Amino acid sequence: MITPNKLLEHARSELAYSGQNKPRQADLHRAVSTAYYAAFHSLSQTVASEFVPAASKETRLVFARAIDHGKAKDICAAWSSCSDPVLRKFAAALKNLYQQRTDCDYNLQYKISKAETLVAITEAAGAMQSLDRADPGLRRDFLAAVLLKRR
Predict the structure, then answer these.
(1) Do 78 and 3 touch, CB atoms closer than 8 A?
(2) How far apart are CA 13 and CA 72, in angstroms?
(3) How far apart are CA 141 and CA 75, in angstroms?
(4) Which residues have C-beta within 8 Å of that of residue 68, sequence separation ≥ 6?
């Protein structure tokens, strides 16, 4: 199974694999995209663990797959000013990584430097740690907001 930490490790290896002072844009774009997915899957797995912890692995996977990328980004934008600085860090990081991933995946003219790519990978790693350390009550509220459709 691919875990968020394995995705993050792969993002680092994509950056290291380029091995050049001036890596190819395709390698940098792929590394940023992979870093975003590491943070996103950390979120989706946390949602599943929080709300269906005793469910089978297959059920938790289905539950995790219910998270919509755009909605998660919008919820993160709304929560980027919440009272918990640790959760605020996660929300701001995921929102930023979403935008970078969108640029890298869909804007063929988008240029990113090796340094900016490393910052994105570091931001994803920090976001993943922040989600684990957030205030449990606020984190649960945040996770519910990501999961549930507001009417």
Answers:
(1) no
(2) 27
(3) 11
(4) none
Which residues are CB-contacts of 82 (< 8 A; sequence separation ≥ 6)? 88, 91, 138, 142
pLDDT confidence of residue 15 = 80
> Quick one: tokens of 132?
């684990």
Round to whole Å and give the CA distance between 76 and 69: 10
Distance CA 112, CA 73 (A): 21
Collapsed DSSP state (helix, strand, coil) of residue 23: coil
Residues found in the chain:
151
User: In whole angstroms, what is the distance from residue 144 CA to residue 141 CA?
Assistant: 5
From CA 76, how far away is CA 43, in angstroms rounded?
11
Judged on CB neighbours under 10 Å (0-12, 13-18, 19+), 80 is middle
Q: Phi-psi bin for 55: left (phi > 0), alpha (psi -120 to 50), beta?
A: beta
Q: Which residues of the chain have pLDDT under 50?
A: none
Q: Is the pTM of this model over 0.90?
A: yes
